[in-house]
């Protein structure tokens, strides 16, 4: 009997905690909903500025706590998630009347969606918290986070930085909150709570599926596994510089990082020697079996959690590879093809890249599709070429929501510096990735838009003709 009561208490505790968080969030929602654009913009600016100034401290915390990634790259991520995201949304009108077209008689009014639940990943801890919180408060929505337990300390400190800055700038208490004792039960209770209006989930496929199973609007993202094609007309120097920059960034933990590379036969040897010169280590055929077993979990057909975000040298050591330099940028596994029969074709979330030779453009397109179909549908593909006709063909044939041309995919997919894609750390994958959006998450996705339609002074003429 006592044991049963203890079990009931353990079950009830997460629910009680979530109930309290949601209750406080609704009080904050009442206050946020009456604020004007100027007040909201002041708060968002204060949050972004505070986060920017804490970017280095939080980057170090993330590396120390999770044991993954690269400090300098996490600093850049935090800068992007504060300064860059702020600059991309600062002029957006998200409060009250946002447009009023006298000619059409259509007025648009923005309202908050309500209290948001947000699940965040271990791979991008503080940066995801910054990003989602800025978008939430910009749209007058309180947000309650469920942090990944392996990054709880870092995320809590991130939450404190922005919550304190928000309140100091005039925001209500508890506009940014989080689950203090992380557990799957608490996260599930939060996402399914009646007081939660929508869920923003960034993480593994299981977490995203849970978000979409709540019966309420959800914004989740699909897995990556990005294939990239280096075609013979490409500017090879620029292409290799981009790929090395992208693949080595934060030890390959961005989901948009190049995973499988297809290279035209005519330039294969040049590309290979160029990658070696830039610090890539090519795994020898004799080491390939041990390497594959180290990197991948064959039962789950996914990356070994121990490997994700680790250095190329550490992964090589675990694989029994003794001649890999300590400063190797990433590891390259040459393969005969891509697809389910090649275990390393799956998403690797680490500084591991496969490389496959294409005998023709048609062969390359076939290989790209096989790679994309292996867990990356809807996410991102990359192409390095100077052939405009190929760009068009590529765009029409690839089932991906971000088609990046002559761009490092890690940076290009999130809208960092290289293109005009909406800056974001939550990348929608459309119906291909079983997501509700096919674009990068932005503030508009967290608004209810009311449409006011005024009667026309003269009724539209009805015609019987088509």
Keywords:
466 residues; alpha/beta; Aldehyde Dehydrogenase, Chain A, domain 1; Aldehyde Dehydrogenase, Chain A, domain 2; 2 domains; 7-stranded parallel beta sheet; 5-stranded parallel beta sheet; disordered N terminus
Overview of this structure, please?
This protein has helices at 2-32, 37-53, 55-66, 71-89, 125-138, 152-168, 184-192, 205-212, 236-248, 268-277, 288-295, 312-318, 361-372, 388-397, 409-413; strands at 96-101, 106-112, 116-119, 143-146, 176-178, 198-201, 218-220, 226-230, 258-264, 280-282, 296-297, 302-303, 330-335, 352-358, 378-384, 400-405, 447-453. The protein has 466 residues and is of the alpha/beta class. A hairpin with a 4-residue loop joins β1 (96-101) and β2. The strands form 4 sheets. A 7-stranded parallel sheet has the order 10-13-14-9-8-15-16, with helices on both faces. The protein has a 5-stranded parallel sheet with strand order 5-4-3-6-7, sandwiched between helices. Strands 1-2-17 form a 3-stranded antiparallel sheet, with no helix packed on it. The chain has 2 domains: 10-221 and 441-452, Aldehyde Dehydrogenase, Chain A, domain 1, CATH 3.40.605; 226-415, Aldehyde Dehydrogenase, Chain A, domain 2. The protein contains 15 helices and 17 strands.
């Amino acid at each position: 009997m006592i044991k049963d009561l203890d079990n009931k208490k353990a079950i009830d505790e997460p629910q009680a905690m979530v109930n309290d968080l949601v209750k406080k969030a609704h009080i904050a929602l009442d206050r946020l909903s009456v604020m004007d654009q100027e007040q909201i913009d002041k708060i968002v600016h204060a949050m972004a500025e505070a986060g920017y100034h804490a970017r280095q401290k939080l980057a170090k915390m993330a590396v120390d706590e999770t044991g993954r990634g690269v400090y300098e790259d996490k600093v850049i991520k935090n800068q992007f998630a504060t300064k860059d995201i702020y600059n991309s949304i600062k002029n957006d009108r998200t409060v009250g009347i946002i447009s009023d077209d006298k000619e059409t008689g259509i007025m648009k009014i923005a309202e908050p969606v309500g209290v948001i639940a947000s699940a965040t990943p271990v791979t991008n801890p503080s940066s995801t918290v910054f990003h989602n919180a800025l978008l939430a408060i910009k749209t007058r929505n309180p947000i309650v986070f469920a942090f990944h337990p392996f990054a709880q300390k870092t995320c809590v400190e991130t939450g404190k930085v922005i919550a304190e800055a928000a309140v100091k700038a005039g925001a209500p208490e508890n506009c940014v909150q989080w689950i203090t004792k992380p557990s799957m039960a608490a996260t599930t209770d939060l996402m399914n709570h009646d007081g939660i209006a929508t869920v923003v989930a960034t993480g593994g496929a299981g977490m995203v599926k849970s978000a979409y199973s709540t019966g309420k609007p959800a914004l989740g993202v699909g897995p990556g596994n990005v294939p990239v094609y280096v075609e013979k007309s490409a500017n090879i120097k620029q292409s290799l510089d981009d790929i090395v920059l992208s693949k080595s960034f934060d030890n390959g933990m961005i989901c948009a990082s190049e995973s499988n590379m297809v290279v035209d036969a005519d330039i294969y040897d040049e590309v290979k020697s160029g990658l070696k010169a830039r610090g890539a280590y090519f795994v020898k055929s004799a080491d390939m079996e041990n390497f594959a077993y180290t990197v991948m979990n064959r039962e789950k057909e996914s990356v070994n959690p121990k490997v994700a975000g680790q250095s190329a040298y550490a992964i090589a050591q675990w694989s029994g590879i003794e001649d890999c330099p300590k400063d190797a940028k990433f590891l390259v596994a040459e393969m005969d093809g891509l697809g389910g029969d090649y275990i390393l074709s799956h998403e690797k979330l680490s500084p591991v890249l496969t490389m496959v030779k294409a005998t023709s453009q048609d062969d390359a397109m076939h290989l790209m599709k096989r790679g994309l179909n292996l867990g990356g549908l809807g996410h991102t593909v990359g192409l390095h070429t100077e052939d405009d006709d190929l760009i068009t063909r590529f765009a029409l044939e690839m089932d991906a929501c971000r088609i990046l041309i002559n761009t490092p995919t890690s940076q290009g997919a999130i809208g960092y510096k290289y293109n005009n894609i909406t800056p974001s750390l939550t990348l929608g994958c459309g119906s291909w990735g079983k997501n509700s959006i096919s674009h990068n998450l932005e503030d508009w996705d967290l608004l209810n838009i009311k449409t006011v339609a005024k009667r026309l002074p003269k009724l539209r003429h009805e015609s019987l003709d088509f």
